[in-house]
Amino acid sequence: MPVPLFESRTQFAPLREEILGEIAEIADSQQFILGEKVEAFERALCDYTGAPHAIGMSSGTDALIAILMALGIGPGDAVVTTPYTFFATAGGISRVGARPVFVDIDPATYNISVPTLRECLATCAHRVRAIVPVHLFGLCCDMEGIKSAAAEHGVPVIEDAAQALGAEFPGGGRAGAMGEFGYYSFFPAKNLGAFGDAGAVVCRDAADARRLESVRNHGMEPRYFHKMIGGNFRIDALQAAILSIKIPHLDTWIAARRANAAFYREEFARAGLDPITLPAEPYTHTYNQFVIRAPRRDALAAHLASAGIGHAIYYPVPLHLQECFAHLGYKAGDFPESEKAALETLALPIYPELTRDQQREVFAAIADFYQT
Ligand SMILES: *Cc1c(COP(=O)(O)O)cnc(C)c1O
Q1: Which of 10, 112, 214, 309 could form a disulfide with 353 if both were Cys (CB 3.0 to 4.6 A apart)?
Q2: Is the pTM of this model over 0.90?
Q3: Cβ atoms of residues 57 and 201 within 8 Å
Q4: Phi and psi of 287, rounded to 5°?
Q5: pLDDT tens digits for 321-338?
């Protein structure tokens, strides 16, 4: 039987009546833009993350752009981030006219390396205005190290928690709520998925929250008067209402992802499949992705494809080597750990409703590849 990398129909089934009821209510009211449903979701997100303010956005990508616009970051400014992330992190920085400055990752966690970040901040020739650490695959970065480095340089931390809603850094708090700003994506394959695109920003400061609300709506305040240039970054009321129904289940879904990860670990340990490196878990991982490092990765991927086992490569080309960033002047060899990860990593199915039998099939296909 084929095993999908991700599947969400099973999760939808028990929530079907409740969600369709809510969609019907909104259809009857015809209140589609902002309003009560959006405010209720924003409150739920504050309660869940511990952040004082939440602002629903049209996507994770737009959430980052809105934060950068609210901070007045643009041409002549630089923003430090990792080259081993989804494109949107650096894409957003570029789209406001700022320059992404990359810092290599820690090979164990795939997150930005704090010693390397410190070196970069000490020597960077550009005017650094913010740091965007990415909690990749659902594991928090070393927020203690990042926050102290940022504080020494007087720049805000904007957490990319798109893959990590619900993750925690020990003693620090929940992903997104530790920096000055954090943002989430509710793309359907994230741990909390909408029925389309949606995102959110959380922040600590009330004045920042007001500015973000304004940026989300063309910088309009009051209606048809614009002190600043914003955009249309509004979350749909429909998406917010669906997310409000789903968020109370998030911790259960994360626990199921973690149990699936633990089962893979047992299977790999029992079979002694040494060449495979399993994800590091220095503290609680929320496993938006379960990413292994595998020798002969591309041949393994081809083998899994022929066995009908879902898998993906996150990400095959680090951002400093993307064609669209050639003007930044980076070259192969600049970020060796990111380049190595791009060649060796492979994501396996980990979604909450995955069954033990499906996991055994995934494991058997991998064992088969290395033992023949
Ligand atoms: C998904 C994702 C984003 C962008 O979110 P969208 O809602 O798809 O715009 C940004 N950063 C990371 C790391 C992501 O995984």
Answers
A1: 10
A2: yes
A3: yes
A4: 45, 55
A5: 999 999 999 999 999 999
